[in-house]
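Table 4 source record.
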Amino acid sequence: MSNFIVQFPLKVELYQRDILNKRFEIGRKIYNSLVTVTQKRYKEMIKTKLYRSVKEELKLIYQSKDKANLKRKPELYKQLNKLYKQYRLGEYSFQSDVKRMQHHFKDNIDSFTAQKIATCLWKSYDKLLFGNGKSVHYKRYGTFNTLEGKSNSTGIRFKDNTLIWNGLNVPVLIDYNNPYEFQSLEHEVSYCRVVRKFVKTKYKFYLQIVFKGITPVKPKRALGSGNVGIDIGTQTIAYSSETNVKIYELADKIQNIENLKYILLKKLDRSRRACNPNNYNIDGTIKRGIKLAWIKSKRYIKIQNRLKEVYRKQADIRKLQHEILANEILTQGDNFYVETMNFVGLQKRSNQTTVNEKGRCNKKKRFGKSLANKSPSMLLSIIDRKLKYHGKQLIKIDTWSVKASQYNHFDETCKKKKLSNRWNNFDGIKVQRDMYSAFLIMNVNPDLKSINKEQCDKTFNKFLILHNKEVDRLSGNKNLSSIAI
């Protein structure tokens, strides 16, 4: 069954704020205690000869890709699962462990909430054991900001416009003039989640209600009709539909925040060095191999809180701009095509050492900072989430087969271009590279592996008119170098 989430602010009294902060801190300590218990078992397991031999054999199977050896995989995974059960590394085992811890704090943390804390930790182990996770971390002070229940019948509950939780009765602020919130409340409540956010100089509290069913769709959020091609980069997005062609810089309002972040981080570093001179070596590096005690001045804490606010604003502005842009894109059609992008790979530093014309080594940095600031993956997730409300989803094409950035539909050839080459020249017809890629993606065949040339020929003249209109709109503006207009 599908669910959706609506967030409401809480009207918290001063004494209630203290109780909620106390409960979040108790939740953090339960989580960290559970990490300690489970890490002991995990470290004992990875020391065993059986675990190491099974993992080594699986590694060799994946490297060789020999079909004869592939038959061994199910048996090896069965052995691993037996080890996980033996060392009690599973979600239900974690929930059993947390039960004893929760008993000491039952006046503040109910059993369902404690079980959800265990489930939260299991998600980290799930990535560690079955995904690409490297380690499980403790939660630092002030970083544990979510507590949730499992149902609306006990523990954290929403009833009569009030949050009810272990003796706390906190009014929930609901805007009945907002049709979305009003229609949401007509659905059955699955479970509730209390969230705190550090805003300016203090924490603010919110109730996130998980409702059963499909989210109410606003009338102005209806889908358009036709195919839409989306070409997304590290800092820009271009889309092409039957009625519109656009290219935008992603989250263009957050760049000025990046400069402020740099200034505040430098201030923090100077303050930290002034208050803790014994923690640094003569060359200015931090001492390693010994436990260090760090002194934070009042000025340091003020700057730290200011930096927290900058990060929060940056995240909120980015998400707001992505939501607005997603709504615009959804009005352009009802079939949305996009290339599969490996954003994790683009974040990593280059392995190859290259030398420029001056004989100096080029930087190995790639697109990590751009992806962190612009978050293109988040935009695609938002579009996909909104499409699911209409029973649809993003259609991902085969990037390696389609080669939208290299393809020329006039002569059906593929020509590799440099990243700095932002324009295509087709016998005097100049077309911006990203917008043309979006146009090609829009006209992909049903197999999602090739471009429909006939459809491209039929719609290219209309695309060119819309393309030139977008170029005129951007001309004279201060655009990114990757847009090249």
